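name: query_chain
kind: protein
chains: 1
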Amino acid sequence: MSTLSLRLPDSLHKKIRELASEEGVSINQFITFAALEKVSTLLAVDYLKERAQSGDRHVFDAVLAEVPDVEPNASDRID
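structure:
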């Protein structure tokens, strides 16, 4: 594990301290989780962009053409 010195504005430090306390975790854990969430999001976006580039619109349209045109069940409707 490595150590990182980080300068934060006092107002942000205060808010992180409050939120970490509400979550019942240390400030270090809170910031670690926040960084992990951001990295995971960026990696997911990159992965989805890469997958989208390998897609084939004609194959997609062919698959959709096979879906029957029926009304959804009442429990599946968005009203």
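note: The mean pLDDT is 94.
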